[in-house]
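Hypothesis: this fold can be encoded by more than one sequence.
Test: take the structure tokens below, design a sequence, compare later.
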């Protein structure tokens, strides 16, 4: 009868460590993919899936300003990220590449009324989110993409008279 294999605690730790370090990156990728999955609801006309439209206090009578949302080998960014607009204009956030949101943070814009709610994640190339410019004139408003803010995907809107 063959002898029973000898228990080797060092080899056991090595095997456990190797298998743990192998599956952790995979778990991270799966978690991030699930977090960026977004809503599967049908998109409202001209907007994000399930996005609530901001109640405009000013009728959209001005021009439409397109702001592209892009992630590529260079960076994650809004193009342009510095925007000048007038009350009554419309900001049209359009997906170029990537999965993005638009968020006008209240704590970064103290005292600014009518901030729209954070958008759902926009995912499809060409998908748009329209935000009417109904902010007070003479103010600069901060906005960001929540998933990519730490990577520098931030912008400013200057509201002219």
């Amino acid at each position: 009868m063959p002898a029973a294999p000898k228990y080797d605690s060092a080899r056991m730790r090595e095997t456990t460590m190797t298998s743990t370090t192998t599956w952790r990156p995979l778990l991270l990728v799966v978690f991030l993919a699930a977090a960026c999955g977004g809503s599967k609801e049908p998109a409202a006309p001209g907007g994000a899936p399930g996005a609530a439209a901001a109640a405009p206090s000013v009728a959209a009578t001005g021009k439409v300003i397109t702001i592209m949302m892009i992630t590529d080998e260079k960076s994650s960014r809004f193009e342009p990220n510095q925007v000048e607009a007038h009350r009554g204009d419309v900001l049209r956030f359009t997906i170029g590449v990537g999965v993005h949101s638009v968020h006008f943070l209240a704590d970064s814009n103290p005292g600014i009324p009518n901030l729209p709610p954070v958008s759902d994640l926009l995912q499809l190339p060409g998908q748009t989110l329209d935000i009417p410019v109904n902010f007070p004139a003479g103010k600069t408003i901060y906005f960001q993409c929540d998933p990519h803010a730490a990577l520098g995907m931030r912008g400013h809107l200057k509201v002219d008279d």
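The two ends are 93 Å apart (CA to CA). Residues 16-21, 25-56 have pLDDT under 50 and may be disordered.
Hypothesis status: open.
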